[in-house]
Amino acid sequence: MKFIGDITQPLHVEAIEVGGNDISVKCSGSTSNLHAVWDTDMIEKLLKANYSNSVTVWANALATRIKSGDFKSEAPSWISCSSITTPASKRRSVEDDIAAIFEKRATITPLECPLQWAQDANAFDCSFVFSFTSGEDLCTSSYFTNAVPIIETQIAKGGYRLAAWLNTIFDGATNLP
C-alpha cells in the first residue's frame, strides 16, 4: 500500500542525487534536502496554511475535489492505465493488474499501472521539481506556491489509486466515481 502512495512523489521515481537527498536546499530559513522538502516540509506548511494543520481536513477536501470538484473529470484517467507505449503488457486497467497478481503473471511481466504512474510522477522532476535557483528558499518563494497544485494533485492521485487497488482486491472492481 505504501508503494502506491509513494510512487506519486516525483523524487521517489528518479535517481538524481539519491532522489534529491543529496541536494541541500532551504525551507523556511532552515537547511534541509530536496527530498525532505517534498516529502514533509512543504506538506506540513500546506496543512498549516490551508487545512487547520489536519490531515483529515485535507483528505476530505481532496476527496470532495475528486467526487465533485476540479479533479472529477480527470480522476478516472488516473487509473485507466492504457498506453500504446507499453508493449510488455496487454492489461489496461487496475482490475487487470490485480488479476495478473492473483494469476501470478506479474512475476513475468511488469504491471502496467505502476510503470505508468511512475512515469507520470517522474515528468514533474524535469518540468518543475528541479527548477529552483541555488539559494532560493523553496518554502517561502513562488516555488512553494507553484508546487502546491502539483502536491495536491499527486496526493489525490495516490489516494484514488490506492482506493482503486483495494476496492479491486476486495470487491473485484474499482467502484470509484
UniProtKB/TrEMBL annotation:
One of its GO terms (biological process) is DNA catabolic process. Keywords: Disulfide bond, Endonuclease, Glycoprotein, Hydrolase, Metal-binding, Nuclease. SUPFAM superfamilies: Phospholipase C/P1 nuclease. Gene3D superfamilies: P1 Nuclease. It comes from the Eukaryota. The keyword Cytoplasm does not apply. The keyword Hydrolase applies. Belongs to the nuclease type I family. This is Uncharacterized protein.
